[in-house]
User: Which sequence fits this backbone?
């Protein structure tokens, strides 16, 4: 490749000096970037080299990485604004710019770090992979052990606000008999869990690992809860039906009958004979399939292509934000949280802009955008196809979930349905948006198992 030197170019000697300085600057730049690879967690050394022991974990992101994050945000090369006045082309320009402005100037990661470190966090190796988890025991006797699994684009940060209501129910007008011991793990490839280096870490292997984790913690009988991918893991665990599993509660149920799923896949209009709630669910699912699932298709087929998630904070943030609820994408609660006010009459509930950034920033510092995406590639079934499980199951259908699962479909999918309810608030990120209502649903859902 030739380089044309303009007439104003200095002497050859000076040109060589400039070139040398440029190379040196490049080397320094690489060294500066290498600093972002510094460890962000401190994990106790395993006794006797046994990595399957339970080891405490503490989080501390080096200041240099915080500086690098803010520099990268400010250096974002922005595209043109969308040519529409809605979100039909993707995450709106005004939304991501507002988030980036706050992220680069006012956001304080150290507050999130302090919240994480105030909780009992641990690492243990299961089936060759480090699994990170939060473990909070209730002070109440006979508390039910419960493993709660987050989804995408979430993390254990989604569950911060439900920990106290579930472990300390008497402080929230509930009974001591409603208490839970909580175990909240990071999915493989997410957060502080290890990133799989071989294939095979999908919902099935994860569900089996969760059983190992609970037994390793001394829980011989336990329940499981999840939404989004967490609900997928719960459903798989219920199909595997380990003897230790008391039952499950899901807020993203898998209820769609085979015939309905086939019609959706073909892009057909709603089949004849559907009840009103079934038709509504069909229309929601049809709209989502046509307009709101591009991210899932990419992660399910080509996750490694998403290199921008590791290089650009704003690229990562926009990808994680582009998850819808039953009506709009991004989800109404996320948009309202970012702007700090109701948008189109939709409240964010308890979800704040800093909550959203805590989650995104965790993905950034752990560089898990692509490793998390691979969980979709490892999943080889329809997430919402009828679960076909017989263990006791409780289902909460929040009004702004991706689809409102009809009771008729739910009863056919969960053969031992012990609880079904449709709360009046909340959406796809229910534990984030409505933590107290969510905790009430979990208590009510598992109450039949305590009798």
Assistant:
């Amino acid at each position: 490749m030739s380089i044309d030197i303009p007439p104003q170019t200095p002497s050859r000697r000076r040109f060589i000096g400039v070139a040398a300085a440029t190379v040196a600057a490049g080397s320094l730049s690489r060294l500066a970037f290498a600093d972002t690879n510094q460890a962000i967690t401190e994990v106790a050394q395993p006794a006797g080299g046994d990595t399957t022991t339970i080891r405490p974990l503490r989080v501390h992101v080096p200041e240099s990485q915080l500086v690098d994050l803010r520099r990268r945000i400010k250096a974002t090369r922005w595209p043109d604004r969308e040519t529409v006045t809605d979100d039909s082309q993707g995450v709106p320009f005004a939304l991501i710019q507002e988030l980036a402005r706050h992220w680069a100037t006012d956001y304080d990661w150290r507050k999130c770090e302090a919240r994480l470190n105030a909780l009992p966090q641990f690492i243990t190796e299961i089936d060759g992979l480090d699994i990170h988890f939060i473990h909070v025991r209730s002070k109440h006797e006979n508390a039910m052990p419960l493993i709660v699994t987050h989804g995408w684009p979430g993390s254990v940060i989604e569950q911060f606000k439900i920990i106290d209501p579930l472990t300390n129910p008497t402080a929230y007008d509930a009974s001591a008999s409603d208490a839970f011991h909580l175990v909240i793990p990071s999915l493989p490839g997410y957060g502080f869990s290890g990133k799989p280096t071989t294939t095979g870490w999908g919902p099935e292997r994860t569900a089996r690992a969760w059983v190992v984790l609970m037994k390793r913690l001394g829980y011989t009988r336990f329940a499981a809860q999840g939404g989004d991918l967490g609900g997928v893991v719960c459903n798989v665990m219920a199909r595997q039906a380990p003897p230790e599993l008391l039952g499950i509660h899901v807020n993203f149920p898998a209820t769609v009958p085979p015939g309905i799923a086939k019609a959706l896949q073909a892009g057909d209009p709603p089949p004849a004979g559907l009840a009103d709630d079934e038709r509504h669910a069909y229309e929601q699912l049809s709209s989502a399939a046509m307009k709101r699932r591009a991210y899932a298709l990419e992660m399910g087929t080509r996750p490694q292509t998403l290199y921008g998630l590791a290089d650009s904070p704003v690229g990562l943030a926009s990808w994680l934000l582009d998850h819808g609820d039953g009506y709009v994408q991004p989800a109404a609660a996320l948009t309202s949280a970012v702007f700090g006010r109701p948008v189109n009459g939709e409240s964010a509930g308890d979800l704040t802009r800093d909550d959203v950034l805590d989650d995104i920033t965790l993905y950034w510092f752990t560089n898990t955008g692509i490793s998390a995406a691979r969980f979709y590639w490892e999943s080889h079934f329809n997430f919402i196809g009828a679960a076909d499980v017989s263990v006791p199951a409780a289902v909460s259908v929040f009004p702004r979930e991706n689809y409102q699962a009809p009771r008729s479909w739910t009863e056919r999918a969960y053969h031992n349905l012990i609880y079904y309810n449709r709360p009046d608030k909340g959406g796809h990120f229910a534990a984030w948006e409505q933590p107290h209502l969510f905790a009430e649903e979990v208590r009510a859902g598992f109450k039949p198992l305590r009798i």
Q: What stands out?
A: The domain at 72-449 is CATH 3.40.50.1820 (Rossmann fold). Confidence is low (pLDDT under 50) at residues 1-34. The chain has one domain: 72-449. The chain has 18 helices and ten strands.
